[in-house]
Amino acid sequence: MAFLTKNRVAALLALIVSLMAVVSGGQVLLGWSTPAYHVIPLLVIYNVVLGLVGVADAWGLWGVRAWAEKLASFILGLHFLVLILLLVMRLLDVEVAIHSIGAMTFRVLIWSIINLLLRKKGVPAGT
User: Fold this and answer.
1) DSSP labels for the chain?
2) If we measure between CA atoms, which residue out of 19, 83, 6, 102 comes closest to residue 54?
C-alpha cells in the first residue's frame, strides 16, 4: 500500500489550508497582526473555528475515519455558503474586503479538491 493515498493527500491539503486559517486568523484575534483592509470580526472567528475543525478533519482523513468524509463535505458547504454571503454583502455595498472574498474562494477551491479526492474511487484490480 502506498504511503500517500488519496485520503492522505486530502488530509495534508486539509491540514495546510486549516492551519493557514488558524494562524492568520489567530494573529488578528490576538492583536498580533492588523490587516490593511476592513476586517469583519465574526468572519475572523468563523475562519479560526473552521480552521480548528479542519485540523480535526485532517486527522480523521489521515486515519480514514468514517466521519471524516462527511465532515469534509460539511466544511466545503459552509465555506461555499459564507462565500455567497460575502458576495451578496459586497453587492449590497456592505464593506467586505476583496481579500476576504479571495481567501474564502481559495478555501472553497481547496476543500472542493479535497472532496473530489475523497469521492474518486479506484478501479478494482482485474477489471
Assistant:
1) --SS-HHHHHHHHHHHHHHHHHHHHHHHHTTS---SS---HHHHHHHHHHHHHHHHHHHHHHTT-HHHHHHHHHHHHHHHHHHHHHHHHHHTT----HHHHHHHHHHHHHHHHHHHHHH-PPPPTT-
2) 19
C-alpha cell belonging to residue 23 = 494562524
Q: What is the pLDDT of residues 70-102, one digit of tens each?
A: 999 999 999 999 999 999 999 999 999 999 999
DSSP letters for 99-124: HHHHHHHHHHHHHHHHHHHHH-PPPP
* Residue closest to 47 by CA, chosen among 14, 10, 19: 19
Please tell me the pTM assigned to this model: 0.89
Query: What distance in Å separates the CA atoms of residue 30 and residue 34, rounded to the nearest whole number?
Result: 10
